[in-house]
Amino acid sequence: MSEPEAPTRGSRSAFDPDRPVNPVDLSAVKVSPDAVRGPGRADEHPTAPVPTVRLRHNRIELALHRIREATGSGDASTRPLLLLHGLGERTLAVVPAAAAAWPGPVWGLDFTGHGWSSVPRGGGYTVELLMADADAALAHLGRCTVFGRGLGAYVALLLAGARPSLVHGVVLTDGPGIVGGGIGPGAPRITVAPALDTTPDPFALAELTVDVRPPDYATTYLHQAVQLSELSEPISICGVVRPPWLDAVEGEPGVWTGPADEALARYATH
To answer: Between the N and C ends of the chain, which has fewer C-beta atoms within 10 Å?
Structure first.
């Protein structure tokens, strides 16, 4: 019986912000042979979205895609919306339905080891590494509103606290990798993954599935965002999944809960 073909670069788990996600479905983020070696589904976007800007983050080359130009007028039309995808996903050349009315340009970042960004040798993924990826995008785009899905939602929350002057509100939505590895470290282990020059990087899937997310760590970044942002509610929770880190954030001042399109409308007009 022949071995299945390795997935082509960027061919698995495209970033589809409108795809429904089952609440706290841990099997959706567990790593299995099929998840890292299977042929995957047909790729409807075989080439990178254009135009694509290449950004340097240490030795990594990041892909930042301009998905759509500004469609509105006034001050809000100059502020970009930055999309951060979920674990194992990538940027698609489509705007999420919730963001259809966004007046400014829409951009999407491929995290390290995802989409058309570089794949490091031997793994070593942390959420802080991805936050630095997003920080490189902010350095290029300037002040943005951030729309995070799954793992990208957690990164967006940390980014709001780390760069409050550059993040004009974040929208946190459900998606792959939103749960993480819980509030405490698990048993010591050595990550072994196949050496594939493809994305998503198997090391990223293995390591970012078990990253530790203490609730007080998330609320520390929330408090920084709320204290230093010009917005009264710079964080919007727009999903149904509530892992411990997000459950802790939801009960804090400065957090708004509701539909994603309404959250974006609020940030576009303030």
So the answer is: N
